[in-house]
């Protein structure tokens, strides 16, 4: 029989995520996809206090903030650009955290951080999705930013992190948290800014860094599923870069089969039905 695609079937992981597990998801938008699916199926998931994070240095910065008692201060506030100067955010956050005043931003950012810290201390499983090895550094201090906040390009320099730097970051995160189990993956989303060539080099850098890690972790092949099994553009969204909804469904199914025992499936289905029903409840307060 002629094969029409290359199936990617990860082996069952050496540990499981169950409904009594406490999970954190950090990293690119694929981490957001997994976190959303886990929440919809009733799992205990740490709220994301920073939003989408793309590069290893920003993920390290987020973990260090979670481990500390530091709060965001007025000096962290940054006015956005490109006509959004009335919005305030920080270089550590995704733009979804932007608010119309410094007070609103700081109140929300610190509330989200404290809520996440309370969960982070008890988290037993951490899912990190790496989007890119390319970082943008703000001038003149050289700070690696999680998001450029639509500010002028002249304010930043671009750098492709080396394999050793990425490996050391990931080893440092996992090695400093021996009480937690780590699932690491490379995001299936291509990063085409600044170029296709740099996207290839960036993804290769992340793969080599993961391969060279000295700390134990479990790898999930999200990138491989998208590039090999789902390589047709019908599995891409309209921008032809992000996975489509059906592609996310398929990758989620592979994740479920890899990490969640079948004994949890019945409870997952009940929780998912309740979640779907909640989306259609009338707002009786109006």
Spatial arrangement of strands, main beta sheet: 2-1-5-9-10
Largest sheet, in brief, is: 5 strands, parallel
Please state roughly what percent of the residues sit in beta strands, choosing from under 5%, 5-15%, 15-25%, 25-35%, 35-45% or over 45%: 5-15%
Q: How many helical elements?
A: 8
Report the helical percentage.
Answer: 25-40%
Distance between the termini: 59 Å
Rg, rounded, reads 19 Å
Q: Give the ordered list of helices and strands.
A: EHEHEEHEEEEHEHEHHH
Pairing-aware structural class of the strands and helices?
A: alpha/beta
Rounded mean pLDDT score: 93
**Outline:** globular
Number of strands: 10
Contiguous runs where pLDDT drops below 50 for at least 5 residues? none
List the helices and strands and how they pair.
Blueprint lengths: L21 E6 L1 H12 L3 E2 L10 H12 L10 E2 L8 E2 L12 H19 L4 E6 L3 E5 L4 E3 L10 E5 L2 H13 L5 E6 L9 H16 L6 E2 L2 H8 L15 H15 L5 H14 L8
Parallel strand pairs: 1-2, 1-5, 5-9, 9-10
Antiparallel strand pairs: 3-4, 6-7, 6-8
Helix pairs in contact: 2-4, 4-5
Q: What keyword list fits this structure?
A:
286 residues; globular; three-stranded antiparallel sheet
Q: Can you walk me through this structure?
A:
This protein is α/β, with parallel strands linked by helices and 286 residues long. It has 8 helices and 10 strands. Helix 5 links the parallel strand 9 and strand 10. The chain is globular. 36% of the residues are buried. The mean pLDDT is 93.
């Amino acid at each position: 029989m002629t094969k029409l695609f290359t199936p990617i079937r990860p082996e069952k992981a050496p540990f499981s995520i169950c409904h009594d597990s406490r999970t954190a998801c950090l990293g690119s938008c694929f981490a957001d996809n997994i976190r959303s699916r886990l929440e919809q199926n009733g799992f205990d998931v740490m709220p994301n206090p920073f939003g989408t994070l793309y590069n290893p240095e920003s993920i390290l910065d987020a973990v260090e903030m979670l481990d500390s008692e530091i709060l965001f201060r007025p000096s962290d506030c940054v006015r956005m650009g490109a006509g959004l100067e009335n919005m305030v955010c920080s270089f550590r956050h995704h733009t979804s955290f932007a608010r119309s005043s410094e007070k609103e931003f700081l109140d929300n950012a610190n509330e989200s951080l404290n809520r996440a810290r309370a969960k982070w201390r008890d988290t037993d499983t951490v899912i990190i999705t790496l989007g890119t090895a390319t970082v943008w550094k703000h001038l003149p201090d050289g700070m690696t930013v999680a998001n450029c906040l639509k500010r002028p390009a002249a304010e930043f320099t671009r750098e492709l992190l080396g394999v050793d730097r990425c490996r050391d970051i990931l080893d440092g995160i996992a090695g400093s948290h021996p009480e937690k189990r780590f699932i690491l993956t490379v995001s299936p989303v291509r990063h085409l800014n600044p170029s296709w060539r740099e996207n290839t080099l960036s993804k290769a850098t992340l793969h080599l860094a993961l391969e060279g890690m000295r700390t134990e972790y479990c790898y999930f092949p999200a990138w491989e599923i998208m590039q090999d099994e789902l390589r047709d553009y019908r599995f891409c969204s309209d921008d032809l870069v992000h996975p489509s909804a059906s592609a996310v469904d398929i990758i989620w199914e592979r994740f479920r089969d890899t990490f969640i025992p079948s004994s949890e499936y019945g409870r997952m289905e009940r929780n998912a039905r309740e979640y779907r029903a909640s989306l259609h409840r009338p707002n009786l307060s109006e």
